[in-house]
Amino acid sequence: MSSIKLLFAEITFRKSNFLLSLLAIAIAVTLFVAGPLLVDAYQQETQAQVDQWQSRIGDLEKQVASMREGMAQVEQETAAELARLEDETRRLMRDMGFNLMITHRDTNMSDFWAADFAAADMPQDYVERLAADPRLTLVAHLVATLQQKIDWENRKVLLVGYLPEAPQPHATGKQPMGYRIKPGTVFLGHELGIGKKPGETIHVLGQPFQIARILPEQGSKEDITIAMHLADAQKLLNKPNRINQIMALSCRCSGSDLPKIRQQLAEILPGTQVTEFRTIALARAEQRAAVAAKKEEILNHMRQNLAEREKILAERKQILADMEVSRERVLRIIETLAEVLTPLVVLVSAVWVGLLALSNVRQRRVEIGILRAIGKGSGMIASLIMGKAVLLGIAGGLAGFLAGTLLAQWLGQRAFDLPAERLTAGLDALLVAVLGAPLISVVASYLPMLAALGQDPAVALRAE
User: Fold this and answer.
1) What is the reported pTM?
2) CB-based contact 392:7 (threshold 8 Å)
3) How many other C-beta atoms lie within 10 A of the C-beta of residue 127?
């Protein structure tokens, strides 16, 4: 009978021994396959989740950076727009004329609006005192005037004497406002200049004056105004060194500055009062405030959105940090189990297979004695024992590979929520199982084989 037939005959005769050995090897291979498969699958799946969260965080960081850039751009545009509106308001105020009038505090404004001039006058040096005082920071372009209604060519007209703008040493670089009229000349309002030409001579209160300019139509009292140098007006009205109005322009185009202006004037010239003319330029200032408020509302909305995005970003970063900590903890547990339990089970299985092989050798003592008695050599005896070990290893490796794959899939999906596609063992695991299991079986059967080869056939047959 050939060695192969003897091998299968022995396996068939002693099924329990073979099956127990096969079970031991299959268990060892099962854990050997399932452990690394679970570790690799968990690493890949959790790393994919971490990468996904990092991608989301990266996208959110880009959104936050984009929002910050957008806010910075809006703030720059807002600042530029407000600066443009402020310059435009300042130009409008300058082009449309004065918006402040300083008069003596005894001036009755009801009488003023009825007569178009202030009845109470004040010293001319008031304008120099105002211009020279550095405390006057909210008023510029100070022009002293003397105004009074007179009869001229059978009509009531307004005579206005202008002094050139008083320079303010603390406010340089401003373009002068007001009329610059040479002594002995006049500017005629549009209505008064009808039928007259520049260069002609007219008489005002009996004194001759040359027409230097005829003013364009204004649609206001300036159309019936005779404007001349302040000194000429003071002489005609017999009010030397006296004025009754100081025209000015506020440096801030907002009604909220008027109390501050009055406070400054009270400190410098307590005997005066100030009146503000509301013009379209003031409406422009209110528009600027409205634009600023709207821009601030938009910026606040953007800041709220940015704060929400930053909060979400911080939460996602914390989730990612917690996920990585949890991932490392679970991974260490799985690796520890795989590194400790698998070698221990392999060792126990090897000892189990060795003990079963030794028991099998003892059970086959007479059989081995007969084989030796009929002339079979040690090589055949060794081939029978090692052949069985190799066959056990191959069968146990295949069974363990299949069981390990199934166990990894079952545990991975239920205990760690891993997808099935990550729990598929590769060809390398199959090769390790098919080649490694026979090696362990052969090593475990080596000592029993030596024991079988060392038996004396005569002693084994006599004992039987």
Assistant:
1) 0.45
2) no
3) 24
